[in-house]
Amino acid sequence: MLDVRRLRLLRELAHRGTIAAVAESLAFSPSAVSQQLSVLEREAGVPLLERTGRRVALTPAGRNLVRHAEAVLERLEQAGAELADARSGLAGPLRIGTYPSAARAIIPAALAALGREHPGLEPMVTEVDPAEVSALLRSGELDVALVHEYDFVPAEPAPGLATESLFTEAMYLAAPAPGTIADHRDSPWIVAPHGTLCHSMAVRACQATGYTPRIRHQIDDFGTVLALVAAGQGVALVPQLGVADAPLGVALSRLPMARRTRTAYRAGAARHPAVAAFVAALHTALPSDLRC
Description:
41% of the residues lie in helices and 25% in strands. By secondary structure, the protein is of the alpha/beta class. The chain folds into three domains: 4-84, Winged helix-like DNA-binding domain superfamily/Winged helix DNA-binding domain (Arc Repressor Mutant, subunit A, Orthogonal Bundle), CATH 1.10.10.10; 90-166 and 260-290, D-Maltodextrin-Binding Protein, domain 2, CATH 3.40.190; 169-258, D-Maltodextrin-Binding Protein, domain 2 (3-Layer(aba) Sandwich). A six-stranded mixed β-sheet has the order 4-3-5-10-6-9. The N and C termini lie far apart (48 Å). It holds the Pfam family HTH_1. It comes from Kitasatospora gansuensis.
């Protein structure tokens, strides 16, 4: 009989690529991960890994087993959801991931609504870049999260996860005067830190008009970004949730592009009562101009 915990390790190796990354994500030592994967190979009776020096790759049999592992783990999530639904009342921690502008504009009202309906729940919010959400959900560090994508940075399907649409925002060019992205080929730009979706979006939006932006500042807080634009330090792309209370000296020009936000959770967890309750609270908390 194959051990589910070892199947989870194999699944994580398929997604993360190295034993060291699997060990770090699940708080194991690399040697413990290697040992457990070796036991799984003995249980399977066929080689699951190909080792070349320090590199490890999955064999065809290993990749096939990962597909079965995804299905098994999804069914276990469904079983956990049904068991939770059979209990009287919701209680205990609910680990929530969100990006900063949603954390400020939507999450407080959603938590207030959630608390009124389910006072026994203990929501625990962590700000996290959407690029990191998949790994945190699969490892169990998060139960549900808000993720976003841009027209120029579409989201890749994440094995083992499910998502549903929440809302769509307009995007704006923040500059000293009204204009378009094409008008600022020679302007300094203010973008999010390298490696974030927001950074990629700004760079690709400029490249779509024929140039690569000259980046001066890398800032992750839209309030600070707008203050820098007002101070003449550059121009920036800012989503609808980030443009509230723009300072004097900042012109906001709506662009033909959007940012879309979705809720994400482990496949099979959509009917978990705590996850469903939080998603319902999010819809209640949406500003009127973001509701479908």
